[in-house]
Amino acid sequence: MRLFALQSPRFIGTPAAFSKRGAILQWFPARLAQLQNLNNIPSAVSHDVYMHCSYDIAANKHDVKKALNQVIRRHIETEYGWQDRDVTKIGYRNGKPVICLSISTSSV
Question: Which of 72, 44, 78, 74 is nearest to 64 (CA)?
Answer without folding.
Answer: 72
